[in-house]
């Protein structure tokens, strides 16, 4: 069958974010609205770190089977953005600054102990997807970044308004991604639109993006189930106490 016109296909991809992106999850509404307890904020930081830490591993897996040097040159900046240099670090180190700001021991967070089983399964499935699927689908799965600037902006505004820990240093990860993500998504979107030249390939790319939204949504489902009343923390999940450095600064929302 004939492929959809380029503009129609792009609109199809963007519609996936309109209906399925995790900015619509109840946990994010709680977080951005100042309704999360500090235990719930910390649980989000602990579990989201696992996703952040696996992003450069996912991109390394992508590069390991990429035979096009131009594509490798364009893609490798994603690893640099997250891992950074030896001295200054990158997005992963900025996430650990957030962990420290919310009263967690960054060494504990970096250990990935306490990560919920569902979080681990979802993130590992994403890494495996990128390692194993056709290149077009691996790139298409990254296109959730089309929708990320909105959630980063909401998060910055909401955390600054509602939580005492929030300041420029604590939120540096999100501010930096507002500048980094546009170049990544511009390249990724152009690649998908250029290479999905049959309806079958377009369907596969759309399915890959849908899969990625499921990965993100399922992480929040796991958090909501484990830490929002009635809390049901599964075996191995963070217990709400390990790795916490208590201080009056962290006790709750800003007044």
From TrEMBL:
InterPro entries: Haem_Oase-like_multi-hlx, PqqC, PqqC-like, Thiaminase-2/PQQC. It catalyses: 6-(2-amino-2-carboxyethyl)-7,8-dioxo-1,2,3,4,7,8-hexahydroquinoline-2,4-dicarboxylate + 3 O2 = pyrroloquinoline quinone + 2 H2O2 + 2 H2O + H(+). Coiled coil: none annotated. Keywords: Oxidoreductase, PQQ biosynthesis. It comes from the Bacteria. The keyword Cell inner membrane does not apply. It is an enzyme of class 1 (oxidoreductase). Its EC number is 1.3.3.11. Residues 11-221 form the Thiaminase-2/PQQC domain. One of its GO terms (biological process) is pyrroloquinoline quinone biosynthetic process. SUPFAM superfamilies: Heme oxygenase-like (SSF48613). Pathway: Cofactor biosynthesis; pyrroloquinoline quinone biosynthesis. Pfam families: TENA_THI-4 (PF03070). One of its GO terms (molecular function) is pyrroloquinoline-quinone synthase activity. Gene3D superfamilies: Heme oxygenase-like. Ring cyclization and eight-electron oxidation of 3a-(2-amino-2-carboxyethyl)-4,5-dioxo-4,5,6,7,8,9-hexahydroquinoline-7,9-dicarboxylic-acid to PQQ. Belongs to the PqqC family. This is Pyrroloquinoline-quinone synthase. It comes from Georhizobium profundi. The lineage of its organism: Bacteria, Pseudomonadati, Pseudomonadota, Alphaproteobacteria, Hyphomicrobiales. The gene is pqqC.
């Amino acid at each position: 069958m004939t492929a959809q016109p380029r503009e129609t296909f792009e609109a199809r991809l963007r519609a996936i974010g309109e209906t399925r992106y995790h900015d619509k999850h109840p946990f994010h509404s709680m977080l951005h609205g100042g309704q999360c307890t500090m235990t719930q904020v910390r649980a989000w930081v602990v579990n989201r770190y696992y996703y952040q830490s696996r992003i450069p591993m996912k991109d390394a897996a992508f590069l390991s089977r990429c035979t096009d040097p131009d594509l490798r040159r364009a893609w490798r900046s994603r690893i640099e953005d997250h891992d950074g240099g030896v001295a200054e670090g990158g997005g992963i180190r900025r996430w650990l600054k957030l962990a420290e700001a919310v009263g967690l021991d960054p060494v504990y967070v970096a250990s990935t102990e306490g990560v919920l089983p569902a979080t681990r399964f979802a993130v590992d499935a994403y890494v495996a997807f990128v390692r194993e699927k056709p290149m077009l689908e691996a790139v298409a799965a990254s296109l959730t970044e089309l929708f990320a600037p909105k959630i980063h902006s909401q998060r910055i505004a909401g955390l600054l308004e509602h939580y005492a820990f929030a300041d420029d240093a604590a939120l540096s990860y999100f501010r930096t991604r507002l500048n980094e993500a546009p170049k990544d998504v511009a390249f990724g979107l152009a690649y998908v639109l250029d290479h999905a030249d049959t309806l079958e390939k377009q369907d596969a790319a759309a399915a890959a993006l849908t899969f990625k939204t499921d990965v993100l949504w399922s992480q929040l489902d796991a958090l909501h189930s484990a830490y929002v009343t009635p809390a049901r923390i599964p075996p191995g999940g963070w217990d709400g106490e390990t790795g916490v450095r208590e201080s009056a600064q962290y006790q709750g929302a800003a007044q």
